[in-house]
Amino acid sequence: xxxxxxxxxxVSRDPLLVLMAPPANESAEEKEVRIxxxxxxxxxxxxxxxxxxxxxxxxxxxxxxxxxxxxxSESGKSTTLKNFQLAFAPNAFRAERxxxxxxxxxxxxxxxxxxxxxxxxELLGTNKSTLSSPSTSTLPSPISPLDxxxxxxxxxxxxxxxxxTPSLSSSSQxxxxxxxxxxxxxxxxxxxxxxxxxxIPPDEPFPQYxxxxxxxxxxxxxxxxxxxxxxVYSTTGWKTAFSMLRGRGSLESRSSIDRRASxxxxxxxxxxxxxxxxxxVLLEKKRAMIVLWRDERxxxxxxxxxxxxxxxxxxxxxDNIDRIVQRYYEPxxxxxxxxxxxxxxxxxxxxxxxxxxxRDMASEWRMYDVGGTRSERxxxxxxFEHMNAIIFLxxxxxxxxxxxxxRDRNRLEDSFGLYKKIVSSKLLAKVQIVLxxxxxDLFRRMINHQGISFSKYVPSYGNRPNEVExxxxxxxxxxxxxxxxxSPAARTFFSYFTSVVDTQSTAVTLQIVRxxxxxxxxxxxxxx
Length: 528
Fold this sequence. Notes:
Mg(2+) binds at residue 343. Keywords: GTP-binding, Magnesium, Metal-binding, Nucleotide-binding, Transducer. Residues 126-168 are annotated as: Disordered. It holds the Pfam family G-alpha. One of its GO terms (molecular function) is GTPase activity. This protein is of the alpha/beta class. The protein has 2 domains: 64-89 and 353-524, Rossmann fold (3-Layer(aba) Sandwich); 98-338, no CATH class. It has helices spanning 15-20, 28-63, 77-88, 90-95, 101-123, 178-185, 187-197, 236-245, 256-260, 268-272, 278-294, 296-304, 314-319, 321-324, 333-338, 411-424, 440-448, 454-457, 468-486, 503-524; strands at 64-70, 231-233, 342-344, 347-352, 364-369, 389-395, 432-438, 494-497. Strands 4-5-1-6-7-8 form a 6-stranded mixed β-sheet, with helices on both faces. Strands 2-3 form a two-stranded parallel sheet. Helix 5 (101-123) packs antiparallel against helix 6 and helix 16 runs parallel beside helix 19 (468-486). It is elongated. Mean pLDDT is 74; it is low at 9-19, 127-172, 208-222 and 236-275.
C-alpha cells in the first residue's frame, strides 16, 4: 500500500530511494555506523573515479603525443615540421605537394624582386654602352652543391632543359642592358602582390608595400614585418583563403588528416595557374630571371649591398628557375621543404604516423609551431601544459646576425637566453627538451669558405681556433651547461647538430628523436 505524507499525498516509492533510505526503526548507534560506512564508500568511489581519470589521461597520452616547436624567428621550426611529415607520413606529405606550388612561386618572385631592389642603385644607368668592361651572362659548367655558398651567390649549374633558348647556351656571352632588364622584370612586382593577395581573406584590405608595422604585424590590415617580409595570420581567415584556392593548386598547409580528403581535388593544371595564369607570366619572364641571376656584375653588387635580405633557400630556387618555371611543374620534396611563408600566431598540425612499430606507440602527434619574434613569445606559455616534448631550434649560422626586432641583440646570444628561460621553467620540469643546433650547412660554409671569425661576434669563445669542429664543441658545451645549471630538476641533455633542409640526414635524426619521445612518454605514463 502506498505511503502518504502528512498532507495525505502519496510518496514516490523509487526503488533507488527506497534502497538508500535509512531503516525505519534505526537506533542512534546504527545511524552512526551507517554514516561512517557511507563516508568510507564515498571515499572509495572517489578513489575509483580518480583511477579511471588517470587511465583516461594515460590512454590519451598513448593515443596522442604533443610536441612544441620553439626557437627564434627563422630558426627552422616550420622546416622541421615538414620533415616530420615527410619522415612519418610520407604519403600524406606527397599528396599535398602540389598545394605548395604558388608558395614556391612566391618565394622565387620575391627573391628576384629583392635582388633588383638591392642592386639597382649601383647598376641602373650603367648600361652596355657605357660600361668599360661590359657584364656578361655566361652559363658555367656544373659545380658541386658542396662548393656553393648562398651568402656568396655562387653561379648555378648549367640548365639542361630544352626550353632554354639558344642565346643562353654555355658558350654565349651577353652584354647586359640593366635598364632594359629591370624594366622587363618589373612585371614581377605585380605578380608578387597577386600571389600575396591569394593568401588574404577577401574581406581584408591589402596593404601597400612596405607597411609601417611592428615585428609581429601589429596594426589593422598590415601584412609586412618591420623588415618588409610579407606574412599571414594563423587564423581561420587565411585558412579560408587557402581553401578557396584548393581547387586551383592552392597553398594551404593542412594536417595529415585534412590532406587525405582533398587528394582528388582538381589542381588547375597542377601548376596552379588558375584564371590569372601566374605560370604564363613566369614563363614569359623566365629567360630574364635566369640572365639576372647568372650575371657576374649582379653577383658582385649583391655581395656589396647592405640592402639585401634573401631567405636561406633563395639560392636554391634561383638555381632551379628552369626546372620550376614549367607549365606542368609539380614540386619535389626538397622544393616543399625549403618553401617559406612567414606565419604569425600558433599553428597546430596533426600528423598521423603511417607506420607504427609497436602496439603501444602513438600514431597521432599534434605539433605546435609558434612564432619566434619577441612580441610573439608571450603566447608560448599557455602551450607549456600537457606537452610531451619540446624541440628547441637554435640556428648556429646566425652568430653574426642581429634580431630584426632588436638590432642590438645578437641572434646566437638570444638563443642562449631563450633556451635558458625554457629549461628553467617549472612548468616544463618534467617535459623532455630536445635541442637542434640547426643550419650546420650554412655554418660550415661561413667558417670554412668565407673565413668569418666566430669570436668576433661571440667574444666568450675567446682565442680558441676558428674551426668548425672546435666551435661546434663549444656550442654544445655551452647549451649543456645552461641545461645543467638552470633546470629545476635533473634533466637528460639531448642535442643534435642538424641541417633540416637535408631531408635524408634529418630523417635519421627524427627517427631517434621520435623513439626517445615515445619511450619517455610511456615511462611517464607508468607503461614501462
